[in-house]
Amino acid sequence: MKGIVVVTAHSRADFLWACLHRLSIADGAKDYRYLIAIDRKHTADVQNVAYDFRNLSGLSVTIEHADHQYSGNSFNTLSAYRWAAQRTEGLVHLVEEDIFCGIGALKFHEAAHALSPTCFAVSAAADQNAPRIASDDREGVVMRTSYQSLSVSFRATILRNEVLPLATPQYFANMVETLAARFPNTAIARSQAEQDGLINRVLEERCRNGLPGMLYPVVPRAAHYGFHGYNRSGGRALTEGRIEDRGKRLLAMTAAELNERADPSYRDITPCDLDRAEPTPLVLRHAVI
Fold it and tell me: The whole model's pTM is what?
């Protein structure tokens, strides 16, 4: 096995179905183990989708339920990272339930880590912290100093040595103050203290010390499709039909349809081509684009 793919889930069963379906048909899917990490107060439908996937997919799937009293998604996500990092020396991927991966996403991650073995992490999605530039440079990847939790992968050693030592009971009990004390010179907003804010600070400090940052594709292999959820209130969830049918409908939606269902504050969803195979070896583009 090349590593473990963590899928975090909470209450969007149709998104979870679509997310897992895309992973199951990805090139190299059988080279990985899968952990579906279900957060507290989840819906019964999410649990049913997870167990059906475990029983029917033909993949090696473990399901864990987070037991905690903390707000947010940080405990579930970081606990899932810890579970995975203890069980592999390879890659640990995170795919949240509203992230849909292209057929070549897993292969892209592997190639990017091979291209830069000392990078902090790899995202297969467009960098949300940089302007989007139209390009068909599918071989190109760029190194950046900011983090996003969208179809991301780490070498297990990075998680064990640089990220998980900070996932302490003190952090979960008071994320803002704990990070403010540990990272007094950060340029990251004080309020951004969930797991992605923690990891972003680790990356920021790493880059200040001259170590490599995070790789992003010029052309994304995965995208965020969630028009409603934990950080996106006001969206109109699908409610009619079977979960599988709703999941298929999500996968078929255009950008206009996805954004029309989102709250006007969050109409930034940009789907990617999920069915293009991976190209020849990747190339690190030194210019910031």
Answer: 0.96
